[in-house]
Amino acid sequence: MAMAAAQIVSNLFATPERWTALISFLFTVAAAVQGAFWVREFLLSMVERKAASRADDANLASAMGVVTVIINVVVWAFAGIILLDNLGVNVTALVAGLGIGGIAIGLAAQGIFSDLFAALSILLDQPFRRGDTIQVGGPQGVVGTVEHIGMKTTRLRAVSGEAVVMSNANLLNQQINNFADFSHRRVVLLIEVIYQTDPKLLEQIPAELERMVNAIPDCRFDRAHLIQFATSALDYELVFMVERPDLKSMFDARQAVMIAMVRRFAELGIAFAFPSQTSYLAGPDGHIFDPHPPMGGSAKQPIRARKAAATD
Questions:
Q1: Boundary residue ending a domain (45, 79, 108)
Q2: Which of 95, 140, 187, 210, by CA, is between 20 and 30 Å from 4?
Q3: Residue 198 belongs to what domain range?
Q4: How does it assemble (predicted)?
């Protein structure tokens, strides 16, 4: 503010040329330094506001240190270049040299920088946190609990017990399923009943499934339908929600529904199907023959002919 006031006074009143040059020089320096301070504090305040809810996170403290260093280097480098340019120094060669040097360093350490910026993205954007259970790489990927988020790698503890270490850049390039934000869990059950089931019972099955699901605590029925004529069974699909996020509660609820289903189907006389195949013998005309004819009959006699003979 002092240099701004001196600059204003020198412009309004007659000032010796030597003093005018000195005041202009000092004002340029002060303006560049003050502008760098403002830009630096603005960028740091944005980062701090983003991380305000996680002040006790040690990983975030490390990330903040790295971010602070990067912001200081970039801001003061730009401020220095702008200052030299305003003082009449030819900075073209300096900028070109810095650009070439930056490209060389970037190519030599692109893996390190990619992992570093990926770590900052993880720590600030928070796709997951330490202690969250995540799945990396889609349905067939690694499932584990996040133990450590570093500047270069992230370490998971897999459900099978081993430690899985992945580079941060490689981690963010894959699909990540975060299981920590569950509000409920969806359960899908495929139920197969035999073709010999009475049609009235087939119509009754969806209502029975809904009653069984709603009778289990923390379960909410969604739908139940006959979905297809399978090879050896009639397939029903049952979908319901478990209103508790933990995995054990979901398995307990699914087990309770399945046991209730077995009991109720036994009461109604509904049999569960199992993979089976029935073979029939037929003649050239397509009529089916019984391979176990009655006493005195012929195995080559069509089934409908035997039924007619038995009726007579």
A1: 108
A2: 95
A3: 185-268
A4: Homoheptamer.
